[in-house]
Write the structure tokens for this entry.
Amino acid sequence: LEHCLTVRTTITRGEKFETPLKKFQAVDTRDGIAKALYGRQFSWIVKKINDVTCRNVKKNSIGVLDIFGFEDFEVNTFEQLCINYANEKLQFYFNNHIFKLEQEEYTREGINWSKIEFVDNQPCLDLIS
């Protein structure tokens, strides 16, 4: 694996040429492999979830049950922080478009409505960012 990450191999007309990669090239190679592995792993997980939960559905899908709030584990990893941050961003997008912007539009248009209170999670996002 180390050789594959640090050396470029080219075969031309039956001849094999090996060129050592510079550090930044090896880092790019490593990052590319990691991205491909995570991408394939995510696709595999989505497929397995869909196979179990969507047996009679012809298309791929994933549903998100609850995107608001942090999960609290005994040990929270960086990965969990990233998941929680993504969930908070999704919740902010939802709140902003469904509550805040819609209510502002109702006010501009003079529509009679009752204000809907919601938790603005922008401070949480600011803290993490």
Q: What stands out?
A: The chain is about 55% helix and 10% strand.
